[in-house]
Amino acid sequence: MNIQTILREASAATYDLMNLADERATALLQEVAEALRRRSKEILMANALDLGRMDPSNPKYDRLKLTKERLDGIASDMENVSRLPSPLYRTLSETIRPNGMTIRKVSVPFGVIGVIYEARPNVTADVFSLCLRSGNVCVLKGGSDAEESNRALVAIIHDVLRQKGINPAVCTLLPSDREATTELLEAVGLVDLIIPRGSGSLIRFVREHAKVPVIETGAGICHTYFDVAGDKEKGREIVNNAKTRRVSVCNALDCLIVHQERLDDLPYLCGRLADSRVIIYADEPAYNALEGQYPDDLLCHAGPDSFGTEFLDYKMSVRTVRSIDEALAHISRYGSKHSESIVSENPEAIRVFQRMVDAACVYANVSTAFTDGAQFGFGAEIGISTQKMHARGPMALPELTTYKYIIEGNGQIRK
User: Fold this and answer.
1) How far from 26 is each of 65, 161, 162, CA to CA, in Å?
2) Which of 150, 178, 250, 308 could cross-link with 334 by S-S, CB 3.0 to 4.6 Å?
3) 255 vs 8, 234, 334, 363, CA distance in Å?
4) Cα–Cα distance, 160 to 400 (Å, whole number)
5) Over the stretch 62-121, which tens digit does the pLDDT of each residue have?
6) How far apart are CA 363 and CA 371, in angstroms?
7) Is 142 helix (H, G, I), strand (E, B) or coil?
8) Using an 8 Å Cβ cutoff, are 213 and 330 in contact?
């Protein structure tokens, strides 16, 4: 079956979801979640085939890897989504015109949402759950790195859909080749929206070649600024968590910015990073502060590429600044408008940081690791938008709807 035929079938499947009762959608997601747990062995076997083709030192390896615990987390996220209120057919606003005509603005599905992603099999389940709950057909274009994992997950989803009498095309998995990507990006009239998830190069490629509307989920170049009034105990834990909890995700810390008056505390702030063998690229003042107090084989001089890099690895840069204004200027120059954090006990510094930083998520005394739909109470996420359109930050159910106007009257005509 060629790609155009597959996409036409996905587009036709939007009608199957239009009359899907909310209670039925909830039950369906819960049954899929249970099936993922029950059939975890076959998913892990498929995932092992994918992992066997990838070098374990590749930063994508951790994203690709599934475990029993991670699968349980994926199933739990799906159950969380099933319990969230439906975002559909809500009246967003209502106006009665002088002639008695009523105009209601009502939330509705986009229709068909295409998602292009790399070595992240969890995205397969997350996208399906969010799209089904928001009444959208999902067209999945995963990378070849996760081909076996994605096939196994979608096969289980399709089995449950068929058992419940629902068209399996509401969850369509495209081949992992480049031809499928091109067809998806040019599927005007068949696909309503495309969301890329992955590296900066993938997102740029989609933005430059798509003929279908795109919501970008930008790369995460994340900073933490340790202010002159920062608490070093909080700072130490936040820096370690943001950097080492999971290095391959977009909310991981890439650059620690430290006020020059707190350089004496820098070895303490970075102390736990050595346990995870984090390589630090430090500017000259920071290097001098760390020299002899951080492992020599893990301490490097910062170079031109040390800042503005999403490492996705056990690597981090350190920049010294003389003021909060200088920290803000650094973030403005090198940040990706994803997630930024300040560690400070000064309310005014926090207020300035929160107001001046241009990012989807701005934290005060909190790790950037929380930029995640499940952590925000959204159940799961379809991506983290760094755009400024209708969707920004973790995107979940409300961001997967558009709206239409419903106009009602009693024979009104326009003169």
Assistant:
1) 28, 13, 16
2) 308
3) 45, 17, 10, 15
4) 23
5) 889 999 999 999 999 999 999 999 999 999 999 999 999 999 999 999 999 999 998 889
6) 10
7) coil
8) no
